[in-house]
Amino acid sequence: MIKTRFTELVGVEHPIVQGGMQWVGRAELVAAVANAGALGLITALTQPTPEDLTREIARCRDLTDKPFGVNLTILPAIKPPPYAEYRQAIIEAGIKIVETAGNKPQDHVTEFKKHGIKVIHKCTSVRHALSAERMGVDAISIDGFECAGHPGEDDTPGLILIPAAADKVKIPMIASGGFGDGRGLVAALALGAEGINMGTRFMCTRESPIHQLVKERIVANDERETELIFRTMRNTSRVAKNTISTKVVAMEKEGAKFEDVRELVAGARGKMVYATGDADEGIWSAGQVQGLIHDIPTCAELVSRIMRDAEAIIRSRFEGMLSGAQRQAAE
């Protein structure tokens, strides 16, 4: 068993988080992650209304008696969702752990903290992590360039970003972007994090509520099968490489603006990918960690394998190297 400040903070057995994922973070996946001893998060905005979120939380409680949380992502939008109403639904449901992501969450953080809710803020740079720490969040999820979704505009990979943040951030921090196995967990702990956050790896589990063909595509893909879209708009997003994402990148090179690609990148089309299994139907998120994903296990199998492998690396490999060095010194 690996105990960290993060497992103590949120009351879970293992230092592994299933982060917020649009259309994917539903009750059946979140409950399976929670039952495996990790922290699962329902994605609030996957639910069409705050009332639907209330029902989804109740459905998750029917499936697990372990701790789980909710992700609330605050993004610029032409017609913003009613964030305050989603926040109220989370509070009224008695949720005790929330992952925030996106722009300036101070109002939300303040309100959540009033109700004794632990807040994990997801960010992509040391400066934003320190700003969130000043806002009073309880933990940071630091997201490197390898991640699916929004890696920020600094292009700093985890190998630099995690220790750079660990040098300055005092509250517990989990590492996001590029994690999928026990080696990654040990590396994150060595770099100064208190656990890992996995998105793409949890998408590719039995309980993940997306089409089997998409899961098989993730297994077949290697680490090169992603595209960075919206680079020219300073709103970079890492998505799976397919005919649409490749077309969007080509259009951006020709000077296309958001209006020109809006139809191609519509969320409704991305949602259809997960429903129909046609990986070329729309834009869908996937990280470079695809290159480390070779099977579709249950969440319980995945979490226990990661923990077993991590403990074996620490106990056998590292101790073996140390005792080998000590033997040589003695000789």
TrEMBL record:
Record's signal peptide: none
Keywords, comma-separated and alphabetical: Flavoprotein, FMN, Monooxygenase, Oxidoreductase
InterPro entries per the UniProt record, alphabetical: Aldolase_TIM (IPR013785), NMO (IPR004136)
Keyword Membrane attached: no
Sample GO molecular function, one term: nitronate monooxygenase activity
Protein name (database record): Nitronate monooxygenase
Species the sequence originates in: Bradyrhizobium jicamae
